[in-house]
Specification:
Elements (H helix, E strand, L loop, with lengths): L1 E5 L7 E2 L7 E9 L8 E6 L3 E2 L12 E2 L5 E9 L2 E6 L9 E11 L8 E9 L2 E9 L5 E2 L5 E10 L4 E9 L30 E3 L19 E3 L2
Parallel strand pairs: 2-11
Antiparallel strand pairs: 1-3, 3-9, 4-8, 4-10, 5-9, 6-7, 7-8, 10-11, 12-13, 13-14, 15-16
Pfam families: Big_8 (PF17961), SdrG_C_C (PF10425)
Subcellular location: Secreted, Cell wall
Keywords: Cell wall, Peptidoglycan-anchor, Secreted, Signal
């Protein structure tokens, strides 16, 4: 019946994933008669967005009726393919209407540089689109123009674990006795072990991703110097 992709802020199409900004998919549906339990529909996302952000969980919200009953449950069947399966509630119902609001996060593994992107969602033969301008943070620099930039990569709330990427770019300077420190500013986990830290040297000829992402198992670009 109606659908759109809306940006993080109404008055701009700029999205900064490093500030936890995203776009939101909004669907409005009006279903005809004959839908039964077990029927389903799929929609697919373009390769520049996904549904989970830094979370390790792959969950999408339920579709509920206006009186709060669960009409359909969703699942991520592939990284960019979402399936909604109708529940018993739809049996013998007429003129069903439903709405869905789903956050879509910019994928740092495919959108590695700043610039314009076209986000697309396809359901059946209908595709909705939104043009956005991706901006990433530059990190922080000291007086010698050494740059540090970082991004939380994964967050597992259930296990109380997270992983973090950090770049240290010396700007062609030779650095010695380098110390990198970090701390969780609030909250802590009881009996937590010391974090695991791995250090890699970028040996590739290409620039590091502005999204703060690295395929660390690519031995032609990264050398483990831990």
């Amino acid at each position: 019946e109606g659908s759109e992709i809306v940006g993080h802020k109404q008055d701009t199409n700029v999205v900064n994933p490093h500030n936890a900004e995203r776009v939101t998919l909004k669907y409005k549906w009006k279903f005809g008669e004959g839908i039964k339990e077990g029927d389903y529909f799929d929609f697919t996302l373009s390769d520049n967005v996904e549904t989970h952000g830094i979370s390790t969980l792959r969950k999408v919200p339920e579709i509920k009726s206006t009186d709060g009953q669960v009409m359909a449950i969703g699942e991520v069947v592939e990284e960019r393919k979402i399936r909604y399966t109708f529940k018993e509630y739809v049996k013998d119902k007429k003129d069903l209407t439903a709405e869905l609001s789903l956050n879509l996060f910019i994928d740092p593994t495919t959108v590695t540089k700043q610039g314009k992107q076209k986000v697309e969602v396809t359901l059946g033969d209908k595709t909705i689109r939104k043009r956005v301008h991706i901006k990433y943070l530059d990190g922080v620099k000291d007086k010698w123009v050494v740059t540090v930039n970082g991004r939380i990569d994964t967050l597992n709330k259930e296990d109380g674990k997270f992983s973090h990427f950090a770049y240290i770019k010396p700007n062609n300077r030779s650095l010695s006795s380098v110390t990198v420190t970090g701390q969780v500013t609030s909250g802590h986990k009881q009996n937590a072990n010391n974090p695991t830290v791995k250090v890699y040297k970028h040996i590739g000829s290409d620039e590091l991703a502005e999204s703060v992402y690295a395929k660390l198992d690519d031995a032609s670009k990264f050398e483990d110097v831990t």
